[in-house]
Design a protein that fits this description.
Layout: E1 24-30, E2 36-37, E3 47-53, E4 60-61, E5 74-78, E6 81-82, E7 84-88, E8 92-96, E9 108-117, E10 121-122, E11 126-131, E12 136-137, E13 150-153, E14 159-161, E15 173-179, E16 207-210, E17 222-227, E18 235-240, E19 248-257, E20 260-261, E21 265-269, E22 281-295, E23 303-316, E24 334-340, E25 353-355, E26 360-365, E27 374-376, E28 378-380, E29 386-388, E30 391-393, E31 400-406, E32 414-420, E33 425-426, E34 435-436, E35 442-447, E36 453-462, E37 468-477, E38 482-485, E39 488-492, E40 495-499, E41 506-516, E42 527-543
Parallel strand pairs: 22-42, 34-42
Antiparallel strand pairs: 1-2, 1-3, 3-8, 4-7, 5-6, 5-9, 7-8, 9-10, 9-11, 12-15, 13-14, 13-15, 15-18, 16-19, 17-18, 19-20, 19-21, 22-23, 23-25, 23-30, 24-37, 26-27, 26-31, 28-29, 31-32, 33-35, 35-38, 36-37, 36-41, 39-40, 41-42
């Protein structure tokens, strides 16, 4: 197998634009995913790209041995700190972000980026979000979507670029190249390549996910996560591809950890020799019935509404496997830690499209014949995909029998009938501006639950980054009546105090959800599920 030399895949430079009197920044992005800041944060020491106008007098590339702070008369400051520059041009700058963007007590923050040029002066400050980790996987086409910059690793140490002609086998090992992984135990000096040998830069934590649902059938084993040897601040994750990974030419892959995860890129997988082979198309879908109660600033009295909607997907059959059962949770136990959302674009998955099941009728009744109900109409979008309009009940959907009938289209006709339970009633009152003490356990109580439903309560400490948060997640059976987030002892300045774990003082919210232990089933030929839930959202709270 031929050994390959990896080339860092940065975005292709934009067309050169005419210079103006001052540089203008239009976008600051993760260099791999091209996800823009401030909505998607940048990480200290990560590879980032600035787009704009008049950013440099002409193109210039830094030597591979060390990236300078000034290149072709251009400097970049983020939060006042100088970045290391790899490439500059009138329309684009590729660089390494400063390593000290966050102080020792921060995991997230905000600031501004400024471009300084000798010929055109200084740009206006451009707002950026900053996070201790912000993952983006490099792609082979440099667009942020599509086949990832991934090498197949053989047992003899040789490597091969993962492509449809050279897929990895389930059970094999791959190297994924990315940026924004987070701080290692040690880092080379800014702008200097990582050592070509050794694993001194290994970091702990992280996971990788295979499959359309972003839920692994097994937890892949991470062999290495850290700096790619021989490159400036390029990150590398070596991971085992789970034996149960679907085969195909565009298996979605995400890499995550440190309260963030990357955009989905694609991986080619085949068991045995030869190029990858796609599965024939299959269909699945879901009809969702839920009752939602919302309270918060500007809402007035709590707003209650019941909604019904539906969605159906056509995709390669090997991607439409049911997600594995969630891990068993001990009722009444709360877990606390960081949460986050994807950093990067919502990349389309090849072969996946929205389809319909014809008209859908939802009828309600309490015994006897079903009364006339709601009708969901299929709507064709500009891309040819089918969506369904969402119908809203003006009141709570209470106890009674519900029937769902679909006339059939790409997804065949189906029928389902089930008994909807009475609404669970929260007993904890949380109007806007409620103060939740951090030095006492937080209890959330309810009435009307039964052993046939599960409840979930989330106490969320909001942060300045809209895509990340700190959460205490509690689960219980419906007949438990309450869940409680306990306090833990903490020593500060020689004194012991009890505090809610990890949650920060400041804005907070509470989410409460009720779902059945077993969701109703349908008689559909295609895999169609019917789900119901009851949800409460309490906004405008404060932890103190």
């Amino acid at each position: 197998m031929k050994r390959l030399k990896l080339t860092v895949l940065l975005a292709v430079p934009l067309s050169l634009m005419g210079q103006g009197p001052s540089p203008v920044i239009t976008r600051v992005a993760n260099a791999a995913s091209l996800a823009p800041s401030p909505y998607d944060a940048i990480a200290p020491s990560s590879l980032i790209t600035i787009f704009g106008r008049n950013l440099a007098p002409s193109p210039a590339t830094a030597p591979a041995s060390e990236w300078p702070e000034s290149l072709n008369g251009v400097r970049v400051r983020i939060r006042g700190k100088l970045a290391r520059l790899q490439y500059v041009s009138p329309g684009q700058i590729n660089m390494q972000a400063p390593h000290d963007l966050l102080n020792s007590s921060e995991t997230r923050g905000s600031g501004t980026a400024i471009v300084e040029t000798e010929s055109g002066g200084t740009s206006e400050p451009f707002a950026v979000g900053i996070s201790s980790a912000s993952l983006g996987v490099f792609t082979q086409n440099g667009s942020g979507c599509g086949p990832g910059a991934i090498l197949n690793r053989a047992v003899d140490g040789s490597v091969q670029l993962n492509t449809p002609d050279t897929p990895v086998e389930p059970g094999g090992v791959i190297s994924v190249y990315l940026t924004g992984l987070g701080p290692p135990f040690a880092d080379p000096p800014a702008g200097v390549p990582a050592p070509p040998t050794g694993r001194l830069l290994q970091v702990n934590g992280g996971w990788s996910t295979f499959g359309l649902f972003r839920i692994p059938t097994t937890i892949p084993e991470i062999y290495y996560a850290g700096r790619a040897p021989g490159f400036v601040r390029l990150d590398q994750v070596d991971t085992h591809v789970p034996d149960g990974t679907p085969e195909g030419c565009a298996i979605p892959l995400e890499v995550g950890g440190f309260q963030s995860y990357s955009q989905p890129v694609t991986l080619s997988v085949r068991r045995g020799p030869g190029p990858c082979v796609e599965s024939p198309p299959a269909r699945s879908g879901e009809v969702r019935i839920q009752t939602v109660t919302t309270s918060g600033p500007g809402v007035g009295p709590p707003v209650v509404a019941s909604t019904v909607d539906a969605s159906f997907t056509q995709a390669p059959a090997n991607l439409l496997v049911p997600p594995p059962a969630p891990p068993a949770r001990t009722p009444g136990i709360c877990s606390c830690g960081g949460g986050g959302e994807r950093f990067g674009p919502d990349c389309p998955v090849p072969g996946v499209s929205r389809v319909g099941a014809g008209g859908i009728t939802i009828s309600t009744g309490a015994g006897g014949p079903f009364s006339p109900g709601l009708f969901l109409s299929p709507l064709r979008g500009p891309d040819g995909g089918i969506t369904y309009d969402t119908k809203t009940f003006p009141s709570v959907l209470g106890a009674g029998r519900i029937a769902v009938v679909a006339s059939g289209d790409a997804v065949g006709s189906f029928f389902a009938s089930f008994e909807h339970p009475a609404l669970v009633t929260p007993q904890t009152v949380l109007p806007p501006d409620t103060r939740i003490p951090r030095n006492r356990p937080f209890r959330f109580a309810w009435a009307g639950g039964s052993p046939n439903v599960n409840v979930r309560m989330r106490l969320i400490s909001e942060t300045s980054n809209p895509r990340s948060y700190i959460v205490c997640d509690c689960f219980a059976r419906g007949d438990a009546g309450f869940v409680e987030v306990p306090t833990f002892p903490l020593t500060a300045n020689g004194m012991r105090i009890d505090v809610l774990p990890q949650l920060l003082s400041g804005p907070a919210r509470v989410e409460f959800e009720v779902t059945p232990v077993q969701q109703p089933t349908t008689n559909a030929t295609d895999r169609v599920s019917l789900t119901w839930s009851q949800k409460w959202f309490y906004y405008g709270l404060r932890l103190q």
